[in-house]
Amino acid sequence: MTREPLSLVVTTFNNAATLARCLDSAAFADEIVVLDSGSTDTTLAIAAARGARIAAHAFDDYGPQKQRAIDLAAHDWVLLLDADEALTPGARGAIEFALMAPRVAGFRLPRRELMFWTFQHRCSRINTHLRLFDRRRVRMNAVPVHAAPASDAPLRTLRRAVFLHYGESDIATKVAKINAYSSGLVAHKLARGQRHTGVRMLLYPPLFFLRQYLGKRYVLNGWAGFISAATGAYYVFLKYAKLHEARVQAARRDARDQ
Q: From CA 27, how far away is CA 14, in angstroms rounded?
């Protein structure tokens, strides 16, 4: 029995440091699709050397850009990876077996995170993400910044198809990303009219820290786990602090205009 043909889909922007590892980890895919948004480093040369079909489109938002890349795929089944992610060696067998006769719209894959200088402990709680799917039945959602594939159709989790996220290798990079992401969420949350920002700013960060550090067992990662949980709580604080600031500034503008 042969498996369903598979397209590896990756969006890129100046990802020369990580792209080769990403593409090589899924070299068994029947095609590689790379949608680039204006790289000026060697990203495109790395993709071309691996036989990728390369397209370009200016970046407007995470969800639309990834959906464009998915739409470029020649095959119905898609493996969607970020350029700073890579499959573990054991993932190939699990993926190819799942594609022999898939009876669901897609599969969630477990992702282990790089926590600065070490990878997430295997006994901590590892999040799963919908990354292997039939693109006819799955679409990117409209969530700002953290857009992801979504479907109402049946899904399964492939526990052995683990992939790695080579995210922020140092605290400064993590904090810079937190700052950018939290700013990107403010307009969306203002449009939704989210209320009680002061209470959320006060209560949510410590609850988030405890959920990550103890609930998800980041404590097993030593100081790296502590710092990861603390910076995650800082992200939660920062997005509500910026939202609170934006609401105060808007109220002051309204008062001046009256």
A: 21
